[in-house]
Amino acid sequence: MTTEIRIRARCAEIAEFLVAKNQSYGDSALHPVGIFASGDAIDSLAARIDDKLSRVRFAPGAYGEDTIEDLIGYLVLMTLALEEREHAKTAPLN
Questions:
Q1: Contact at 8 Å (CB) between 84 and 30?
Q2: What is the span of the domain harbouring residue 85?
Q3: What total number of domains does the chain contain?
Q4: Strands, E, within the chain: which ranges?
Q5: Which DSSP state fits 93?
Q6: Are residues 30 and 77 in contact, defined by beta-carbon separation less than 8 angstroms?
Q7: At a CB cut-off of 8 Å and minimum separation 6, what does 14 contact?
Q8: DSSP label at residue 30
Q9: Which of 71, 76, 65 is nearest to 12 (CA)?
Q10: Taking the alpha carbons of 37, 38, 42, 47 in that order, is the dihedral positive or negative?
Q11: pTM confidence score
């Protein structure tokens, strides 16, 4: 299998993983419910990314989680949150 095919397959797996988690958590990554935390999506995702990087450093594989896959997912979500922020800045006021 070529590297290109492997990249495409892995990205498709990450997409399915993110969609499933998004459904399970009610789109809370990009639209946080703010029960305990009061930051926006970017602040919340940054905190989650920090936590995952700490896990990669100090406890990889803890709790049976795929920390690297989670980190990739959070980074993809961060790009979406940043896109939303930029779009909100440039959207006309109605």
A1: yes
A2: 3-90
A3: 1
A4: none
A5: P
A6: yes
A7: 69, 72, 73, 76
A8: T
A9: 76
A10: negative
A11: 0.85
Q: Can you give the pLDDT at residue 56?
A: 86
User: Does residue 34 sit in helix, strand or coil?
Assistant: coil
Encoding tokens for residue 80? Answer: 């979406």
DSSP 87: H
And the tokens for 67?
A: 């920390």
* Residue 17, H or E segment: helix 3-25
With tokens 């779009």, the residue in question is: 87
Q: What does the pLDDT look like over 35-77, one tens digit per residue?
A: 888 889 999 999 999 999 998 888 877 777 788 899 999 999 9
Query: Token pair of 38, please?
Result: 């009061």
Would you state the structure tokens that stand for residue 45, as one six-digit string? 């995702």
Among residues 73, 68, 41, the alpha carbon closest in space to that of 55 is found at 68
